Amino acid sequence: MSTIKKVVLAYSGGLDSSVIVKWLIETYGCEVITLTGDVGQKEELDGLEEKALATGAAKAYIEDLTEEFVSDFVFPALRANAVYEGTYLLGTSLARPIVAKRQIEIAQKEGADAVCHGATGKGNDQVRFEMTYMALDPSIKIISAWKDENWIFDSRESMIDYAAKHGIPIEQTKEKPYSEDRNLLHISHEGGILEDLWREPSEDMFVMTVSPENAPDRVTYVEIEFEKGNPIAIDGKKMSPAELLDYANGLAGANGVGRRDMVENRFVGMKSRGVYETPGGTMLWAAHRAMETITMDREVMLLRDSLMPKYAQIIYNGFWYSPEREMMQSLIDESQKYVTGTVRLKLYKGNCIPVGVKAPRSLYSEDLATFESDKVYNQKDATGFIRLNALRLKMNAFLEK
Predict the structure, then answer these.
(1) Whole-prediction pTM
(2) pLDDT at 42
(3) Domains in the chain, start-ordered, CATH in brackets?
(4) Nearest to 75 by CA among 211, 202, 227, 216
């Protein structure tokens, strides 16, 4: 067994992480420091420090990561219009690297020789945590509890029994028939009853959105202002990144915007169903795309869009801290330098429809686009343009004959 003196554990205060604190101490005889990263999960964080210490932790960090999460992780993905497999806006994929990054920072500050997470060995989160650990500190030891050779649990019941035996305070509430994970960008629902692909999610499952059927019968208009690809204000009110996304969630969620039900391809090789609520993100993604239509050059947009699926896959698979993601981010951010202006959206019963756009440096020219008479575009010029582009088609036709 490896010698571990001090470990930093990603800690939520739930059953798994509460048990892992004691398990680490018993198994490795090490000092445990916990990190609870607030990325907007809206869970009660009060009392978690006391709980961690009572469970045996030597020190407990409670960190507000919301502003950094939105500005340094969500907004870069927004600038890329990143969508995984045409549907998923990467809510969990973007949240794991920032927590893992903070773990490494605390490990270095505290002189810890190991980090630990409680993600299972079947999902993507194990990859996202461990890829980040290795990228930021290749010498750090990694304890992946569920894959550790010394792991002694095979069920939730066995963990509850262990907690009772050691006096670990847990809330022994009835387990939900599915798992949830929430942050400022989204909430995900998966597993349990959702593994039946023919079963429609029940309405009481949803948290951030009302059903489109129960959304207001009136239209809600909203104006979103962008600067270099980043949203900076809603309805004329400038806000910090985290404040803006939180406010956007409320607006869009109240109008039934942002529900997605998909079967996705996990990096580890299996297909998995995920039901996602991303109200504010859906609204901002739609507005951003509309903003780009009048501010981005055609070929620049085509090149950026061609890279988007790969960029989204890189993030989904856990390679946020990779040279390829950083290289692509530089290109994407260069494409955004003129994406500045305002978009007006219409929200109505699950729909998010751009209905107005303006920009100080718009590439749209009413003089050029008009069907009325104009003096800036000679329609006869198109004749040669078309003939030159058709030349290869004519050659193919001649050869076929």
Answers:
(1) 0.94
(2) 86
(3) 6-78+90-166 (3.40.50.620), 179-358 (3.90.1260.10), 367-400 (no CATH)
(4) 227
The span from the CA of 135 to the CA of 133, in Å, is: 6
DSSP code for 148: -
Residues of the chain with pLDDT under 50: none
What are 29's two structure tokens?
């005889």
DSSP assignment of 185-243: S-EEEESGGGGSTTSPPPGGG-SS---GGGS-SS-EEEEEEEETTEEEEETTEE--HHH
Q: Label residue 198 exposed, middle or buried (CB < 10 Å: 0-12, 13-18, 19+).
A: exposed
The confidence score (pLDDT) of residue 373 equals 60
Residue with the two structure tokens 């990467």: 90
Instruction: Provide the b/e sequence for 121-144 (b: ≥16 CB within 10 Å).
Output: eebbbbbbbbbbbebbbeebbbbb
Q: Which tokens in the block code for residue 65?
A: 């990561």
Residue 375: predicted pLDDT: 66
Classify residue 349 by burial, with Cβ atoms within 10 Å: 0-12, 13-18, 19+.
middle
Alpha-carbon Rg for the chain, nearest whole angstrom, is 25
In whole angstroms, what separates CA 296 from the centre of its chain? 24
State residue 45's pLDDT score: 87
3-state secondary structure at position 324: helix
What lies within 8 Å, CB to CB, of 24 at 6+ separation is 4, 7, 9, 30, 32, 116, 143, 145
Q: What is the DSSP letter of 378?
A: -
**Structure-token pair, residue 266:** 């996990």
Task: Please list the residues that pair with 273 across neighbouring strands.
Answer: 263
- At 141 the pLDDT is 98
Which sequence positions are flagged as catalytic?
16, 96, 125, 179
Cβ-proximal residues to 387 (8 Å cutoff; 6+ apart), any chain:
none
Phi, then psi, of 34 in degrees rounded to 5: -100, 150
